Amino acid sequence: MDFRIWVGVSLGLLLPSLVFGQTVETRALTLEGAKTVAQGAAAEAGANGWEVVIAIVDAGGHLLYLERMDGVSHGIVDIAVGKAKTSAAFGSSTDVFAEMVAQGGVGLLAVPGALPIEGGVPLTVDDEVIGAIGVSGVTGAQDGIIARAGAAALSR
Length: 156
Known about the structure:
Blueprint: H1 3-20, H2 31-48, E1 53-58, E2 63-68, H3 75-90, H4 94-102, E3 120-125, E4 128-136, H5 140-154
Antiparallel strand pairs: 1-2, 1-4, 3-4
Helix pairs in contact: 2-5
């Protein structure tokens, strides 16, 4: 067999596996999905008479949806977004970080992008983080309740 033909056939058989072997299939949170999460969170907040900011980010921490209820200070917006970004980046609820700091793990305060205040919850599908919700405006524990209600709405 001519060497050029052999190389051509070999590359033709090998190249597709190299190209396709370098990609993965992932899921993405849609705007509609983000709205569903926000509605679930807003329903929980409303049922308790809590006024909050609800932020939904994609897996990369980019804002997809934001809702600031009437009467909530505009300064709370950045906190809600920060909680959502923290959960998306680390794939964990922010209450885990809050607990670590409370137990003396103050070094966590120096980690870029980590906001250790309860109220951020990752959004997952089949254990894959597709985004996160961050809630702020009431106590950390109450923010967490609202965020978990929003996350649960995604799976309904």
